[in-house]
Each structure stands twice: as C-alpha cells, then as structure tokens.
Amino acid sequence: MEQVQRGWEVETPQEFAERIGIEFKDHLLLSRALTHRSYLNEHPEALEDNERLEFLGDAVLDFLVGAWLYNRYPELPEGNLTRLRSALVRTEQLAEFAQNIELGAAMRLGRGEEDAGGRERLALLCGTFEAMIGAFYLDRGIEEVKDFIKPMLEPAAAQILEDHKDKDPKSILQEWAQSQGFGTPYYRTIDSHGPDHAKVFEVEVLVNDLVYGRGVGHSKQLAAKSAAREALNQIGTL
Question: Which residues are annotated as catalytic?
C-alpha cells in the first residue's frame, strides 16, 4: 500500500525492482533484503531481517569491485588498488549508490527508525544496499550483479581519484603527525546521544596532547574519520 511519510513515497519491493530495472525471481528474497531489524520487531509475521544478506553482499561487492579495479586500472600497484577499493565500498560511497537509486523509498523500517529519519541515514542505506546486492547475487548470479554495479563504479572511481578520497583521512593524519615528530593521533569519544537505533557519537582527535578536530557520526568509526578530516582541514593538508 502506498503511503507518504516525511516526504517519502514508500514503495513495495516489487515497485522498487521495476523502477530500477532489475528482475527478481524470488521477491521474498528482495523483501528480506529491504527489511531492517526495527521492522521485524514490530511485524512478527516478517520472518528475517537483512543482516545475513548484508554480510553476503559485502563479500560480493568486495570481490566484484576488486576484479573491476584490477582490469580497469592495470597500471596501479597493489597498494593503490587496495585504497581505491576501500573508498568504493566504504559506508559513505555505498550510501551514495543507494541514494542514486532512491533505495530509501523501499526500505522496510519500524516506526521508531522511520521517525528518526532512517531512510536518509548513511549506515542504514549502506547496509540495505549491501543486502540488496547479496539478494541479487543469490537470485540472479554474479554476472547480473556485475552488470548492475559496473555503471556506478566508473564515475565514482574517477571522482575519488580526482578528489584524493582514496586516502583514508586517519592514515593521512597519522603520516603528518609522524612527519612532525609527534606520536600517533589519539581518538576519544566525548559524547553519545540518541536511541540505540539512531545513536550519534562525537569524537575528537588529539595530536601531541592538543585537540585538532572533532567529528560526529552514527558510529565511532565514522565520527573518528570526520574528526581526522577536520584536523586535516585545520592544518591545510586537505
């Protein structure tokens, strides 16, 4: 049933598949891929959430992105390929892929997650995209998954290389700190708030016992990266 909540026109799994032009033989598999655990808590008739499919999709994406990069950039050494693959499968990038196909409209969320803006949360979009890839792999096979993601990878990889986003901000900050004769940057969580399903963390990074940056995110890892990025901006490295 169509409904409008917080500006979203919510789609059924079948409507979503038709809109983005993919075919599923098993629509229950796609429904499971779109089902967040918050939905399961409120709808006992739904038998399984998407976390196992998310695990599978993560592995499928790692392999396909690695294989695509190997063939697309034959001149790049192993270290550069590894960093570029990490940038292409990181939370923010996969969430961007999900946003490009408006995956948020098809996610099956509980009321609390819905009200907390779950359809726009990067971590949720990333996880659901991975689960969808896992389901697509089981339903249609590796070649169709490759055909589906290949058009997304080319522009994303080009933009990452242009903006130097293949370099992890925490790694860059550590290299800078060591070049200055300082110790390894230290990250500490200074605040966390919100319900368990939408918790926000605030992390600050210290170099040589001085605060260089602060960041927020829906995980400590994302908040730490944000803090490192702010620190790099402050010292003029980015």
Answer: 58, 130
- Cβ–Cβ contacts within 10 Å for residue 92, how many? 15
Long-range Cβ pairs for the range 35-38 (8 Å, 24+): 35/108, 36/107, 36/108, 36/109, 36/110, 36/113, 36/118, 36/124, 36/128, 38/109, 38/110, 38/112, 38/113, 38/118, 38/197
pLDDT at 2: 33
Lowest-confidence pick of 1-5, 6-10, 147-151? 1-5
Residues of the chain with CATH 1.10.1520.10: 3-163
Considering the chain, tell me which residue range(s) the CATH 3.30.160.20 domain(s) occupy. Answer: 169-235
Q: Which CATH architecture has domain 3-163?
A: Orthogonal Bundle (1.10)
Q: Which numeric CATH code is attached to 169-235?
A: 3.30.160.20
Contacts of 95 (CB under 8 A, 6+ apart): 122, 123, 125, 126, 129
Question: Residue 6: pLDDT above 50?
Answer: no
Q: State the average pLDDT for the chain.
A: 90
> Tokens representing 133?
């890839």
Cβ distance 189 to 201 under 8 Å?
yes
- The answer to whether residue 30 scores a pLDDT higher than 90 is yes
Lookup result for tokens 């050494």: 77
pLDDT above 50 for 1: no
